[in-house]
Amino acid sequence: MDLHSLALSILVLYIVVDPVGNIPLFMAVTSRIGEGARRRVLSLSVVVASLILAFFALVGVEFFAYFGVGLGDFMVASGLVLAAFSLLYLLRPYEAPVSEGVEVAVVPLAVPYLSGPASISYVLVLSNQYGKVFALVVIVAVAALTYLTLSASRYVMKALGVIGIRVVEKIMLVVSVAIGVSLVRKGVALWLSEGAV
């Protein structure tokens, strides 16, 4: 297993999942529950999101391959989805969440914030390009980093403040758009090299 590719993939998926940008949401939806319940919400949301990503890592490639979708197709589609959703979140106005409590562990924390279309698309690319074991290792590593990041949400919020969090979120979203464009470019290059275009 190529450690450089592994480290880069972990970094990219971490940026796509964007736990730092999700700190205000996590703080808001758990503001009226105790510390124990907050930990349960965090654990459940990370586990559910990881299981969703693992499911697509294990069976997503075969499912789409059944319909004749190849690696180049994956890369172009995933790049478009990643860029589109990153732009959507980059340009949207901030909206305060309306739900609170343990029930938010699945929606909206696990889905769509921690395991949305962009992260699912990137996991599909990893699984197709590097294999299922590689993709699962990346998912587990990012899940651990996400848990640690959101566990320290109070400290991060105090250190950066709401404006600082928003700045970090916007930077990560810009990087996500660039990653999406890169995937599209590589997918088109693969098409051309295979004579598919």
UniProtKB/TrEMBL annotation:
The lineage of its organism: Archaea, Thermoproteota, Thermoprotei, Thermoproteales, Thermoproteaceae. InterPro entries: Multi_antbiot-R_MarC (IPR002771). The keyword Magnesium does not apply. It comes from Pyrobaculum calidifontis (strain DSM 21063 / JCM 11548 / VA1). Pfam families: MarC (PF01914). It is a multi-pass membrane protein. This is UPF0056 membrane protein. Belongs to the UPF0056 (MarC) family. Keywords: Cell membrane, Membrane, Transmembrane, Transmembrane helix.
